[in-house]
Structure formats: C-alpha cells, structure tokens
Amino acid sequence: MTSRNQPISGNDLARFSGPNTFMRLPEAKDSEGLDVAILGIPLDIGTSWRSGTRLGPKEVRTQSAMLRPYNLGTGAAPFDSLQVADIGDLPINTFSLSDSLRIIAKCYDAILTTSAIPLGIGGDHSITLPILRAMARRHGPVALIHVDAHADVNDEMFGVRECHGTVFRRAYEEGLIQPAKTYQIGLRGTGYSAEDFTEARGWGFQQFLAQDLWGRSLVNLGAEIRRDIGDAPVYLTYDIDSLDPAYAPGTGTPEIGGLTTPQAMQLIRALQGLNFVGGDLVEVSPPYDSTGNTALTGANLLYEMLCVLPGVVCR
Q: Largest Cα–Cα distance of the chain, in whole Å?
C-alpha cells in the first residue's frame, strides 16, 4: 500500500507547535512525486490600495494548523488518496513586480512538468496572470472560475498593464482562458463607469453579482458551472475579498455586501467532479485582521479546494 503524507495530528504534537507548513504537512523541495503541491507566493507590490498580502502565505499556514484531515461535511479524505506536500514559497523579487511575475511563471512551468496540481497561497491577485500563462502553455486555454468582488479587467492602473486589477483582461487578450467558460462570481461595489463589468460580458465572461446571490444557496450555481465546463481543464482563483468584510476584514480592497462563508463552501463543494489543473487563494492581508480569522477562513477555503480535486476519495 502506498504511504501518503498526513498532517501532524493535534494529538501527537500541540497545534501551536511544529512546522509552519500548510496543515503541518511535510515540506518538499519540489513537486516531483506529488499529486498536489501547496506553495506560497508572498507578493503585494501589485496591489493598488492596502498592502500586507506578502504576509498572507505565512499566516494562512499558521492558521491552517487548526485543520484536521477529514472533511466531516462532505466525507472527503484528500490525504488518503493524494500525495500532498508544502513546497515552500516562490523566491519573488520584492523590489520588482515585473521580475516577480516572470519568476512565478518560470516556477510554475517547472511544477507543471510534474504530475502535481499546484495550489497557491497569495499574495495579491497579480500572481494569477503568470500562473495562467504557465497553465496555458501546459494545457491550452483553460476554463476559469474567478470568485472576487472585482472583475480585475482594467486595461492599466497608473500606467501599469500587469497588476492585480488587470489580470483577466490580459488573460483574455493573450488567449490564456476560454471566455465562454469564464465565470466571475461575487462582483460588487462602486466603479469608474457603467462599463466596469459589462465589457467583459461582451467577451463572453459570465458574471454573477453578489447582490443577485444574497440569501441564496450557491449549490445550484456550482452545479450549473460544473455542467457547462464539462471535462475542460479548469483553474479556480479565489479572492478572499469575495467574502463580505464581516467575514474577511483582512484584505487589501474590501467591499461590503459580499458572499458569506457558507456560500463560499457551498460553491466550492458543488464544483467536485471538474478537471481542476490548479487553483489559488489570494488577497489575505493579515495586518488588517489581528484576530487571524481572515487567514483561518482562507486556510479552510484552500482545504475545501483540496477536497474537490480529481482523485479525492469520499468516505
């Protein structure tokens, strides 16, 4: 029987001690031999409002020590069927956004030569563009599920064309994603013009505003997305600011009127069965939530993403 990595049990070693890896999993030097590689991307020089997401990977890992290996809500037991390890943080250039994006793409190119599915912990949303570039080189244009308060389809910000607010325009222009299989969920807030969201709809993006989801279960929405995507390779990017700041205040660009944590879990769980090739959890900014609850929520959502990856056994 294949021996697979398991998180350190809280009954074997107190949860406030041990390695600062995701869920206190073993650390690996690279993704070779893994089914899932957890990695941190501690970048926040691509953000336009509040910084601090460079501290996100470390705090999400810290709060993840609270998590246990079995999902009591769904019966998923990811560590029974997948070999998972934490491969550490990517060596971004803290003084250069453009060089950091190059480094991220290069590192993902290397990860994708192995069989591992990468799950990234951000970092601001800038990280997703180079990841999608690597994904497209490996898989071709991917289906995209983008959960966020913001559409991130600006043409430029302060003259910069690659930052956290321009990711999905660049991804569309570069042919990295399948527009008709791109879903943006949780959008809301104020804008610069009426075209802030509508232009992307013209490209084929399907958009679901938060106000249309208030008080609703997202199980059916997830099922519809799963049906429409079919067996296409799909990437899931989850911005923590998709949640209402009552649930996740520790983020760089909070917007009121967002999704709830139960809705977030409903959506992710309803996506089980898709051909996920990667995912990320971004925009956790620990300095804006001294309780650690935002990072704890982020850790739980990353675990829920892990639980719906291909090959996960449910008991």
A: 59
Q: b/e per residue, 152-176, with b = 16+ CB within 10 A?
A: bbbeeeeeeebbbbbbbbbbbeeeb
Interval 89-147: pLDDT, tens: 999 999 999 999 999 999 999 999 999 999 999 999 999 999 999 999 999 999 999 99
Is 219 in contact with 73 (CB distance < 8 Å)?
Answer: no
Domain boundaries, the chain: 37-307
Distance, CA of 200 to CA of 179 (rounded, Å): 9
pLDDT tier at 209, thresholds 50, 70, 90: very high
Structural contact between residues 44 and 124, judged by C-beta atoms closer than 8 angstroms: yes
Contact 131, 121 (CB under 8 A): no
Q: Which of 88, 31, 52 has the alpha carbon at shortest distance from 282?
A: 52
Q: What is the predicted pLDDT for the residue at 197? A: 86
Whole-angstrom Cα distance, residue 252 to residue 49?
Answer: 6
Question: Strand 206-209 vs strand 142-147: parallel, antiparallel, or unpaired?
Answer: unpaired
- Residue spans of alpha helices (H) in the chain: 56-64, 78-81, 97-111, 128-139, 167-173, 195-203, 219-229, 261-270, 293-307
**For 210, left (φ over 0), alpha (ψ -120 to 50), or beta?**
alpha
Under 8 Å between Cβ of 99 and 251: no
Please, which residues have CB within 8 angstroms of residue 235's CB and are 6 or more apart in sequence?
A: 131, 132, 135, 142, 143, 144, 145, 177, 276, 277, 278, 279
Query: What local confidence, expressed as pLDDT, does residue 110 receive?
Result: 98
DSSP 118-158: EEEEESSGGGHHHHHHHHHHHHSSEEEEEE-SS----S-BT
DSSP state of 8: P
Q: Give the right CATH number for 37-307 from 3.40.1080.10, 3.30.450.40, 1.20.1600.10, 3.40.800.10.
A: 3.40.800.10
Q: State phi, psi for 65 to the nearest 5 degrees.
A: -60, -20
Average pLDDT over residues 139-156: 95
